[in-house]
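Meet our chain:
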Amino acid sequence: MEAQVKLSDRLDAWLRGDGPKTLDSLIALFGEKGFAILFVILLAVAALPLPTGGVTHVFEVIAMLLALELIAGRRQVWLPRRWRERDLGPAAQQRFRELLVKRIRWLESRSRPRLGALLSHRLSGVVYGLVVLGLSLTAFVAPPFTGLDTLPAMGVVVISLGILLEDSLIVLAGTLIGALGVFVVIGLGRLIVEAIGALF
């Protein structure tokens, strides 16, 4: 692990580089781990205090499409050209450098490979896709402007980082965070909708 370039360093170099900050360039950089790194970037928009500019739902839809590809057994990422060429924007790039890369470095310092072979199994990819699909859908249907999409989105980010770092313990932690997020969205979301309905 030490002989390799760390995930945080690769992501930081990509964010600071002169090239386009598109999903296409990210896929090219991470190759076979393209699904996991895309889930980190796409769902971090909802999981971190970032200026979204209204793109949160768009990124969640893209994440759900990618999850369906994993469920179908695809190994290579496919996305429509328009989505692949979508730029993250300078504000999001800056916040990613300040928040996401810093958190990944913190996680890396505490991570070590645990049951990495299990995470690379084909069936694990299908289960990964199902979990990401469920959590991304939960984040998508969370009542707007409530912040309830944060926990399910964070669950996807942590699970994906666990896969990138080949650490099953981090994957488990992300699954628990995501499950908590589902319960919060269902419980509090229902209360919010009922409260709004009572006003009318």
About this structure: The mean pLDDT is 85.
